[in-house]
Design goal:
It comes from Metabacillus bambusae. The chain is an alpha+beta fold. Helix content is 30%, strand content 41%.
Length: 194
């Protein structure tokens, strides 16, 4: 298990803005790596109500289950490396592998036995180190949606915010309130369920 605080800034982009960032930061098509995010919650969306999220991410042939929960600054992420077989079983049954994630869910008062698999979001992601942070460019597809997003992950919130706003200003990209991927996924799912 590992835990870390995630501090990131994000902004949805148009496809034109996405291409502009690729050019400005010299990001090539072969810099993008495919990752799949498989999302879980209870049928009552207990995690969503707590501002938390649970996913299994497949990146190359590595699988990591991550629970994100609110922290004073950013999000507390708890990571648990799992096997391909364990990931497949959890997606199929919703039954979580015992360990640190289940322990954290119980601390949050969430019944791990009521967890359900909700769906997958696939992202093509490129990452670039930039001024003591990590610039992340994402092209995601989920349900009937395709979107583009810029993220900037940092250790220091105040400095990161200034740098992120400078990037957007220099490229003439408007600041857009951007929900995280899992929230966008669930809102789209609600919409499509009618």
């Amino acid at each position: 298990m590992s835990q870390e605080i995630e501090i990131e800034f994000k902004n949805l982009l148009t496809e034109t803005e996405f291409k502009k960032i690729k050019t400005a930061f010299h990001i090539e098509d072969n810099d993008f790596i495919k990752q799949e995010n498989h999302y879980f919650d209870t049928p009552q969306f207990s995690l969503k109500e707590l501002g938390a999220a649970l996913r299994i991410r497949k990146k190359k042939e590595h699988y990591v289950m991550t629970l994100k929960e609110p922290a004073k600054i950013g999000l507390l992420e708890t990571h648990q490396t799992i096997t391909k077989e364990a990931a497949s079983e959890m997606i199929k049954t919703g039954k979580l592998l015992t360990g640190q994630i289940v322990d954290q869910l119980r601390k949050l008062g969430v019944d791990d036995k009521s967890i359900t698999y909700f769906g997958t979001l696939t992202t093509m992601r490129a990452e670039k180190n930039h001024r003591n942070g990590l610039l992340v460019l994402d092209h995601s597809r989920y349900l009937t949606v395709e979107d583009f997003e810029l993220e900037y992950e940092v250790q220091d919130e105040a400095t990161g915010k200034v740098i992120f706003q400078e990037i957007l200003n220099e490229l003439e990209i408007p600041i857009r309130y951007t929900k995280n991927k899992i929230r966008r996924f669930y809102e789209q799912k609600y919409k499509e369920m009618g």
